[in-house]
Amino acid sequence: MTDIPVLTIDGPSGSGKGTIAQLIAREFGWHYLDSGAIYRVLAQAAMKHQLDLADEDALSRLAEQLDVRFAFDNADLKVMLEGEDVSLRIRSEEAGNAASKVAAIPAVRSALLQRQRDFRKMPGLVTDGRDMGTVVFPDAPFKVFLTASAEERAQRRYKQLKQKGIESNLSDLIAEISERDRRDSEREVAPLRPAEGALILDSTELGIDAVFEHVCAFCADL
After folding, report:
1. Is residue 2 within 8 Å of 141, Cβ to Cβ?
2. What are the DSSP calls for 64-125, one per residue?
3. What is the pLDDT of residue 6?
4. CATH of 6-218 given 3.30.300.20, 3.40.50.720, 3.40.50.300, 3.30.70.1230
């Protein structure tokens, strides 16, 4: 399947990679994979089935059978777990922190690796996450690493949660994002880092439109 093009967009939480990936997927008419959502869905499924997040064997078995799919509803992305729309539920800070812990387990990452690669179908795939360009799709012809300061990412997250009517504390968000960055970058398996040859974009001072234009220009040969 190496003849099926893939654009990977990696980066830390709140960098805007998901928004950009979805815009690109709709622009090109490609399939979309939110790898971070898969880990969030797995964590949600574990909590739903009352599994211990430290139980590697149980989590690995759950990962192998995880019933997850993505569907665009006009401009909105729906994430379905076992036929249930969990799009909003998996975006909570609790779900994000649980996903980060689950993603650090080697056996879980191994179990989900092939599941993610199965999303690679014609006419192409746009995917975002933390190790898409380094581990999951190392042969992808186009790789982007999108980042921003922890403060800016916390501000974005705060606004998103506020718009959804979810109470949050900005100082707590900054601390949680910084801790997640540390955990993701220091883990032994698939640490968060730019892939070789990736376009590195700092979106701290850039709006969505500007980032979208940069990525489109980078992928002009698609």
Report:
1. no
2. HT--EEEEEETTEEEEEETTEE-TTGGGSHHHHHHHHHHHT-HHHHHHHHHHHHTT--TT-E
3. 96
4. 3.40.50.300
The rounded distance, in Å, linking the Cα atoms of 107 and 91 is: 24
Residues lower than pLDDT 50 in the chain: none
pTM of the model: 0.78
Which pLDDT score, from 0 to 100, does residue 222 have? 56
Instruction: Give the pLDDT confidence score for residue 72 in this predicted structure.
Output: 80
Reference 128, options 32, 1, 203, 26; nearest CA is 32
**Can you tell me the distance from the alpha carbon of 33 to that of 10, in angstroms, rounded to the nearest whole number?**
12
Neighbours of 104 (CB within 10 A): 18
